[in-house]
Design goal:
Blueprint (H helix, E strand, L loop, with lengths): L20 E3 L17 E2 L7 E3 L2 E5 L5 H6 L7 E6 L4 E4 L2 H32 L10 H21 L6 H17 L18
Parallel strand pairs: 2-6
Antiparallel strand pairs: 1-5, 3-6, 4-5
Helix pairs in contact: 2-3, 2-4
Length: 197
């Protein structure tokens, strides 16, 4: 008997067609043109600025009981995406808009970092007899950490307007991503060595 287990978790609500979805790639850099929501506006009539980055963590799987029992590597089941149709920038001028784009890239990369943390935790905590919802406390804890980190940097950098501080925080995130290279979506984590070895 097969069980169907389909889960979608997103950090932010995403809408739109699949062609508007970009999967995280270390070589892809977000551009202002990627903020394709109809709400995006750059106008000197605006007196404030804001961003909705459109970055998400998508986690889903479909497998039989037997497959689930013997699956330990969920890397390919956790995706970091950017939804162009959901991404919004509101800015009074192009300079502010470009600063917000840099914050959007930081946010996309931070989302990938937390996807890698999720992949690692799933790998390290999944046992042969784990229940299908074993990931819930892991996911909830990581999302709390993600939200706290994102809010901290948002406030410290004034949504990326402090470009020097944003660059510093962004470099830290990129360094952490590099340290977790075994947990990219297409990677196979190394098997743990026995303590007797």
């Amino acid at each position: 008997m097969k069980i169907i287990f389909l889960l979608f978790f997103t950090l932010l609500i995403s809408v739109g067609l699949s062609q508007s979805i970009i999967e995280w790639d270390p070589n892809y850099k977000i551009q202002l043109s990627d903020f394709q929501s109809s709400q995006t506006e750059i106008s000197d009539t605006l007196t404030s600025y804001s961003i909705f980055p459109g970055a998400n963590i998508d986690f889903s799987y479909y497998m039989s009981n037997a497959e689930f029992m013997f699956t330990k590597n969920f890397n390919a089941k956790v995706k970091t995406t950017f939804n162009k149709n959901a991404a919004i920038i509101l800015a009074p001028d192009s300079i502010t808009a470009e600063q917000l784009v840099l914050f959007g890239q930081y946010s996309f990369d931070l989302t990938e970092l937390y996807s890698r943390k999720l992949r690692r935790e799933l790998y390290e905590n999944k046992g042969a007899f784990s229940s299908a919802d074993f990931f819930k406390p892991i996911f909830n804890t990581l999302m709390e950490e993600f939200n706290a980190e994102s809010a901290k940097v948002l406030k410290l950098t004034d949504l990326g307007r402090n470009t020097a501080l944003l660059a510093q925080e962004h470099n830290r995130v990129l360094s952490e991503i590099a340290l977790m290279s075994d947990f990219c979506s297409s990677c196979k984590p190394p098997k743990k060595k026995n303590k007797s070895e």
